[in-house]
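Page 42, continued from yesterday. The earlier attempt failed because a stray header line got pasted into the input along with the sequence. Redoing it now with the clean sequence only.
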Amino acid sequence: MNNTRYLKWHNTIIGIINDKHTVEFTIPNLNTVVQSYTHGKTQWSAEEYKEFLIDRIVSKFRRDIEKILYRCGLVEYDEFKLAEITRAMNPKDLLWIALNEQEKMEDIMKDVFEKIFVKKIDIDGGSVLSPDGVNIKRYGVSNGCYGIYKKRLHPMSTDIESEVAVYELSKLLGVKCCPAWLVPTDDDVEVFSKFEYNFAEEYIVHFRRLFTGDEDRNSEYYSLITKFPKYKENIQKMIILDFITRQTDRHLSNMAQKITNKRNEMYSLYDNGRSLFNDESENMINKAINNIELYSSEFGPVGTYSDAIYDIAKDTDVKKIVNLNISDDRIRNIYKNAGLVGYKLEGGVAWTCEALKLLKGM
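This time it went through. Structure tokens are written below.
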């Protein structure tokens, strides 16, 4: 039995996958997207190949992972088997796994993505092709837009309301975020996050893929602006938004670059739900809003958002890159309309207002 598989970009073979799950690249520098994954290497170890797959298949930390494995006919989580079942297809680019040299993407994609974007099969409809991450997610369509549906992390979490609140606030601040809105369900509500790219012509690469591992990351802010100097203002705006909303989940896989034929640009911010105390107790929130610098969340391997804000202020007038003139009442209305209530609403408003005051004083 021939266990050789082929890693393709559209219908071009760029690598040969052997039965030990190592990859021999035939065209490691085919284009900018492929090069961002290979970094010019001519081969991947099985571990490097697994790291590539992790970004493209359902996460083993998903709350409904047992259900998904059952649909796939698997009794335990196996990155390589899941990748073969789903062909490691992902809307962010044209990379996929072919079972033989002759297979064409158009034929496989018709079966794979028609289920998601045409028939709109949802979580309960049997689709095993869903985004990575802990949330229960699915690709789908809302109001004629393509994107991702996300369920609440757990019954007490307000992450879906926070995602909408952060998006609405970002528009006033002047920070680009993926549009997000609430969609009612039979028993709760989901959040829909819209794709801000044309997946037929544009491609998304997470920042994590653009780091080699040799970079100094003692300061995440300086590491990012050194690696991506042309995105300096975008990165500064991201940090300011995250500080103002107390984001706790901004890692290198939650930042991305959009690649087009004409130019590359920093992709709109996404996965903004773990913010505004979505998972915190009333006692902790009361402590935090009285000392926002001490309770500022971590940013990168070392340091906090508060540290990064002061680093930005050393050579940038924060007031010139974001709009800080947002009234307390306006913030309250945004958060309330997003669905936040009780101590989560009060805490979120208090934190954001205090953060804005701090920034104005810089």
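Notes: Residues 222 and 341 are 37 Å apart (CA to CA).
Reminder to self: strip header lines before submitting.
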